[in-house]
Design goal:
homodimer, 20 helices, eight-stranded mixed beta sheet, Butyryl-CoA Dehydrogenase, subunit A, domain 2, two-stranded antiparallel ribbon, alpha+beta, 3 domains, Butyryl-Coa Dehydrogenase, subunit A, domain 1, Acyl-CoA dehydrogenase (chains A, B), medium-chain fatty acyl-CoA dehydrogenase activity (chains A, B)
């Protein structure tokens, strides 16, 4: 079955849960308005259903081929990419000075979910290009921008991010690729990068690589890393393509999922070294890379949301078609759709509620980033920047945890058919798996949340957010709507547990760092479950306030989340605050030392 | 890396957590003793490491081929199967009258874990043969037993279980395959079965199919199903093979995992119908099939344990080799094994603790089945049968949930390498996925637990088990060993929560069945987490009592489980008892009706 973008869910999430409406009303978005948002999402949904979704399975089955250093993508992919750029989809939130439409990142976030749901392996390519655009726009010289930025924004050329080396994964500082300055101001780069997404492909004439490398006299670790722009083909002064640069795909990975996305080993230096141009200053590469990584992390979170929604739609459809057994109380011949069985309902409700929560966490991150760059008041910008920083690890990790869980349940709803590749449920399950790993594993995100985001300003970002969530819970309690069930109570308890847990961690980040680190992952889960529950509740309240006909279904979703997922917050508090010793015992328990 | 059977863990689990030692001391096992158990497991471990484990990846990569109705298995597989039968491994717990060794099922359960860990797709074949043996032994005529049983016990021939049809999956009663009685007393069977594991292969000369079919005048639903033995080749009076029977593999599935195990569509009737022999009585097929299914369910649970342990061993090894970053407090150049990071320790501890808990739940089920057939006192047998019935759905569902979770974490520990197929972690993740589905989905198991096992005797089986677990918790509390941390408290709370939840469900199974069914899956999770925690604690106590040098590591594992996993029991109680309405709201929330 195909994919249909859930536009009304997305708009409710964007406008209310994520705060776009409030930001619009505060004037942060200039003359952009909610009607434009709706129109863009409608069109994006059509393009995704018509062009991208039908290629998802084709891509999975065909994969890609590497021959003589050239990668061939699956049938139909180059043409789809052409239509993608022609439709202006690559340029949605690109800088207007370089041909972009300058739409809010929040809109692009919703679009990213749509591309990921339709075809996550396809959507990954522009996701990396977007990061490249951002780094170049923020840190590149005017000359480099003039040559490269417009073509990256339009999508005529794509971008890559090249950090990883065999010995340098999560530990980026361990990279060894070398860059030597030449008399003409360029650099010669030699080394090998692995796991380079779309490092080589046949969808565009040129590829612009962003490569982290080390100068000969650079300090050790992350302080000695510089960022270089390394084009696949050199670019002449008139913009035409010049000679081939010395950066080649020397291998591609055989992966669990994302078969259509080429994951390349890139070799530089077999022919004297690749020519690269410094981005930003020498030894400041990590700073530039972090610019790229934050948005890339949000993008990967949105991949989790997208794959989850696709898996949910497919499972719901199957559950309505597949007939097995009878509903309780029904007798006689015949059978009912499996949707009637409470256990199947539970799975589907969990899938949809988790997906909706992750969606809003991601969109809220995007709105915060928007406000951090668009608001006029520096204080508002700073607060939004802190909010974005706090939300980013959750947008990435919670959403991709959910992408995996929902894809798992999607297979389960299909029963035996779920294990058969032709059904398609298994592809979502395989594709989703990498999202919890790349752009910083979810463990790294959890550590970032505890050590940098929670601890950065004595917890101020967290307290500010919890105050807002608490206000939402008060509204739920005040609504006295029996359809909310025990939503208010459950969320209140979750918030109190999260407050206590945050304080406990804050007290230990510096004094007992291993204890804090041991609690990082359950803390992120606890935070996500509490935040997600409150955001869904705020959307349900908004739907009621606006008199939406669908308000009861949003109330039901919020209630399900509160009573089944947010309710775990208390247990997770205990895991964080009472189990550090049990984790530290791993040396004795697992190694016998 | 290869697999090494964790013999000392297995023996502690078997003897203490699972209660083999007590059953031996009570005389239920005759002259079998614990030394024989240890010797068998040692040998099984060697065979698994030497012969089966090296073929696991080969099987995954080569898969199987179907040409002209014949299935070719992966290179080395027929030879390994030959060595398997020659080593007597097929006959471990087979009936002695037909060449079996008659060892306890508990020993075979441990062996099944070993085979599954080494090569789950291989181990699946004898698992189904074992079920066939059981059904034939329990319900077959003496004539059929004489012809078929010895060769099934030795493994010279393999068996299949044929229930599923396109419209009849979980709803077995919907099957349509027809059987008509012939003048000679045999039956002619026509129909199509799907998802038939090892329905066709090249490892043995003959295959003995056990097929569910419907007689022309049979009542509708499950009451009109009969079980037939349908050989691939007819068997002459002298035991030699006769003509080919009319049952053919007409297709094989392209699956997410278990690539080496042929999953066949079986067609009967293209040449007049397959000749079948009735097992048991007409229309009593479901009764016979349940005999097969209970052990098959335990077997699948052990697949979950096996794959989990394999994934754990591989992840632990990687975590000790792979160097990234520094331990907290370490400065300067160089990097540490990722094992030093608390978040990695948490993942590995969770993997091992969950695996150990699932193992003991499965072994305890096997011991209960043994006692239910071996004890002299009918009361002891009946109590053991009730215990086995209660534990079976948990052995199946909890262990396979864990198999999937642990394989997921195994990929995560590997980071980006986990997503690369060559690493092998992804194979475990793919292979594990089916275990939560086949032999009754885990949702079906949860429903069985609530509606049949809990409710069967007014909860008596549950109360008896909880009393035993409570005694264990008392011992933990009395031990005053600080290494247990808060294990006693956490398990006590979990037990109390489980007691309340069980009562709540019991009150509703009849009066509000949809509410009870909505809570089935979280109840099974809650029960598993509580039971697993108590069983690990009992093993830790036993290890201390026996003065094992490894006692501290078992205490640490039990503590980790209690403080991180059993601690969820309270939240799961609330999910069961307070969220039925939120599940029922699925109609409105998901379908808008």
């Amino acid at each position: 079955m195909t994919y249909r973008a859930p536009i009304s869910d997305m708009l409710l999430s964007l406008n209310h849960g994520a705060g776009l409406k409030a930001a619009l009303e505060a004037g942060h978005y200039g003359d952009f308005d909610a009607d434009i948002a709706a129109a863009v999402l409608e069109e994006a949904g059509k393009f995704a259903s018509d062009v991208l979704a039908p290629l998802n399975k084709v891509g999975d089955e065909h994969g890609i081929k590497l021959e003589d250093g050239k990668v061939t993508t699956a049938p139909g992919w180059p043409d789809a990419y052409k239509r993608w750029t022609e439709g202006g989809w690559n340029a949605v939130s690109g800088p207007e000075d370089f041909g972009g439409q300058g739409l809010p990142l929040a809109i692009n976030a919703a679009c990213t979910e749509i591309w990921s749901a339709a075809n996550v392996a396809f959507g990954l390519c522009p996701l990396l290009t977007a990061s490249a655009i951002e780094a170049l726009d923020a840190h590149g010289s005017d000359e480099l921008k003039t040559i490269y930025l417009e073509k990256l924004v339009s999508g005529e050329w794509t971008g890559t991010m090249q950090l990883t080396e065999p010995q340098a994964g999560s530990d980026v500082g361990a990279l060894r690729t070398r860059a030597e300055k030449q008399a003409d101001g360029t650099y010669r780069i030699k080394g090998t990068k692995i796991f380079i997404t779309y490092g080589e492909h046949d969808m565009t004439d040129n590829i612009v690589h962003f490569v982290l490398a080390r100068l000969p006299d650079a300090p050790a670790g992350t302080k000695g890393i510089s960022l270089f722009l390394v084009p696949k083909f050199m670019v002449n002064a008139d913009g035409s393509l010049g000679p081939r640069n010395d950066i080649y795909a020397s291998g591609v990975e055989h992966k669990l999922g994302m078969h259509a996305s080429p994951t390349c080993t890139m070799t530089m230096g077999d022919h004297g070294g690749a020519i690269g141009y410094l981005i930003g200053e020498e030894n400041q590469g990590m700073r530039c890379m972090f610019t790229m990584m934050n948005q890339a992390r949000l993008g990967v979170g949105l991949e989790g949301v997208g794959v989850a929604d696709r898996a949910y739609q497919q499972a719901l459809s199957y559950a309505q078609e597949r007939r097995q057994g009878r509903a309780v109380g029904k007798k006689g011949d015949g059978s009912d759709a499996i949707f009637v069985h409470p256990d199947v309902k539970r799975m589907l409700m969990r899938m949809r509620a988790q997906t909706a929560a992750a969606r809003t966490i991601c969109y809220a991150t995007a709105v915060a980033i928007d406000v951090s760059t668009r608001a006029k008041d520096p204080k508002v910008r700073a607060e939004a920047a802190a909010r974005a920083a706090l939300l980013t690890p959750m947008a990435k990790a919670y959403s991709t945890d959910i992408g995996n869980e929902v894809a798992y349940l999607g297979v389960q709803v299909h029963g035996g058919m779920g294990f058969i590749e032709e059904t398609g449920a298994a592809q979502h399950y395989r594709d989703a798996r990498i999202t919890a790993i790349y752009e910083g594993t979810n463990g790294i995100q959890a550590i970032d949340l505890v050590t940098r985001k929670l601890a950065a300003n004595g917890g101020a970002s967290v307290w500010a957010l919890l105050d807002e969530l608490s206000a939402t819970v008060k509204q739920v309690e005040a609504s006295n709507d029996p359809a909310f069930g025990t939503t208010g109570t459950k969320l209140r308890e979750a918030l109190e547990a999260l407050t206590r847990t945050s304080k406990w961690l804050l007290e230990r980040v510096a004094s007992a760092p291993n204890d804090a680190l041991a609690g990082a992952t359950p803390y992120l889960q606890q935070f996500g479950a509490t935040l997600g529950g409150c955001l869904l509740a705020s959307e349900a309240l908004a739907a009621k306030a606006e008199g939406l006909g669908d308000a009861p279904r949003y109330v039901a979703l919020a209630r399900f989340f509160a009573e089944n997922i947010a309710v775990q917050a208390g247990a997770l508090e205990r895991t964080v605050t009472e189990s550090a010793e049990s984790v530290a015992a791993a040396d004795a328990a697992l190694l016998g030392s």
